[in-house]
Specification:
Elements: H1 11-33, E1 42-43, E2 54-58, E3 64-66, E4 69-71, H2 76-79, E5 89-93, H3 99-111, E6 117-119, E7 122-123
Parallel strand pairs: 1-7, 2-5, 5-6
Antiparallel strand pairs: 2-3, 3-4
């Protein structure tokens, strides 16, 4: 009962390649934007920043990132210690974010001594 192996089963190979393709496409999407994905609000009048600002991203679930580093909301003032108080702060808040979370974040930034706080929006 010796059977010669005359066929190769490629189904496991295809499964592994599809998983790798999904991982590459997901990673490439994040790398191409270079930012944490949020849906910005739209505004008719928007201006570009002149200096390199500190970017604080606020996600709808309450996640906070300072220059793409995850930070707890309570530790936001600690994350901003190394920056000059004249540095502009740009808040990138998802449009689905609760207003209360946004106001709490802006209050924390202003309590830390920063005066130039602005909201990033998309031009409509």
């Amino acid at each position: 009962m010796d059977h010669d192996l005359d066929q190769i089963n490629v189904i496991p190979l295809v499964d592994v390649m599809l998983v790798l393709l999904v991982i590459v496409l997901t990673t490439a999407t994040f790398i191409s934007t270079g930012q944490i994905p949020v849906e910005l609000a739209k505004a008719r009048h928007a201006t570009a920043a002149l200096e390199k600002p500190v970017v604080i991203t606020l996600q709808p679930d309450g996640g906070v990132y300072v220059n793409q580093r995850a930070v707890a909301m309570d530790a936001l003032d600690i994350a901003l210690v190394g920056y000059a108080r004249e540095t502009p702060i740009i808040v990138r808040a998802d449009r689905a974010t609760l207003l209360e979370r946004f106001v709490k974040l802006v209050d924390s930034v202003k309590d830390a001594g920063f005066t130039q706080v602005s909201l990033e929006v998309e031009r409509s």
